[in-house]
Amino acid sequence: MMKKSLLPAALTLAFISCVGYAQDTPSALRPPKLTTVSGTMPGSAATAPSTASAAPAAPAANDGADNQASAPLLERRNPRYRLELGDVITLDFPFTPEYDENVTVQPDGYVTLITVGEMHVAGMTIPEVQTALRNAYAKILHEPIIAVGLSTFENPYFIVGGEVGKPGKYDLHGDTTLTQAVEIAGGFTYTSKHSHVLLFRRVSDDWVSARVVNVKKMLSAGNLAEDIHLEPGDMVFIPKNRLSKVQPYLPYLLPYQLFRINFNASSVGTYIP
C-alpha cells in the first residue's frame, strides 16, 4: 500500500527535475528546433532551393539550340543540281502515258500540272521532285511510276569581277581552276592586287564562304598545286593595288611637289666673302 502511494510522488519529482534542467541548460547545448514553412515537411523544404537553382539552366539549353540552328551547314560533297527559275522538266509515265507532259518552272517557283494542279519545285533536286510527284499523283493513280528528267536548265557559270580585262559571267565548261578563270576573263591589269584574290562560294541559302588566294605567290613559284577548282556559281574578285588607289590624286599632288622644288631652288643664295 505504501509502494503504490510513493509512485505518483516519484513521477511528479522526476517531471519537476526535467523542467528545471531544461530551464538551466544553455541555448548552445539545446537541440535545434524543427520548424515548418507553409505546412511542408522539413525534408521537402530543404530540397526546394535546389529545384529553384536548377530552373535557370533551361534557357542555356535553348541558347545552345539557337546557336546550333544558326550555325552554317557543312558543304556537301558532289551536290545535286537544284531546280531554278526557267528550267524545263519532263514527266514520263511508262504505264499511263496520257499523263506525260513538259512543264517549266515559273518565276514564282511553281509548275502547273494538268491533273494535280500547281506545285512548288524551285530549289528542289530531281529525286525530291520525283517523290513529291508520286505523293501528288497517288491520289488518282495506284502506286504511280514517274520518271522525271531535266530537259532545259541554266548552264553552270562562274563570275569574275574587279581588276581584270573583261569582267563578267562565263559558262563553266569542264574542270576550271581559279587562275584559268582569271585568264578567261582577260587576265590581270596593272591595277590588280595579285596577292589578294577573293573567292566567294555559296555554302547554303544563308551562308557564303570567302577565301583569300595569293595568286602572285603561286605564279612566282611556278607551283599551281594549291590552285582552287571552281564550282558552279563561284565568284572571283580581284581588288585594286595600293598604287591604283593613290593614282587619282597624283595630278593634284604633282604640281605641289614641283612648286616645292622650284621654291627651294630659288631660295638658295650666293655667299660673298
Question: Tell me, what is the CATH class of the domain at 157-243?
Answer: Alpha Beta
Q: Summarize the main sheet.
A: 5 strands, mixed
Question: Can you say what the CATH homologous superfamily of the domain at 157-243 is?
Answer: Outer membrane lipoprotein wza domain like
What proportion of the residues form beta strands (DSSP E)? 15-25%
Q: Please trace the helix and strand order, writing H or E for each element.
A: HHHEEEEHEEEHEEHEHH
Structure description:
The protein has about 270 residues and is an alpha+beta fold. Among the domains are: about 90-150, 2-Layer Sandwich (wza like fold); about 155-245, Outer membrane lipoprotein wza fold like. It is about 35% helix and about 20% strand. The strands form three sheets. It has a five-stranded mixed sheet, with helices on one face.
Provide a concise account of the structure shown:
The protein contains eight helices and ten strands.
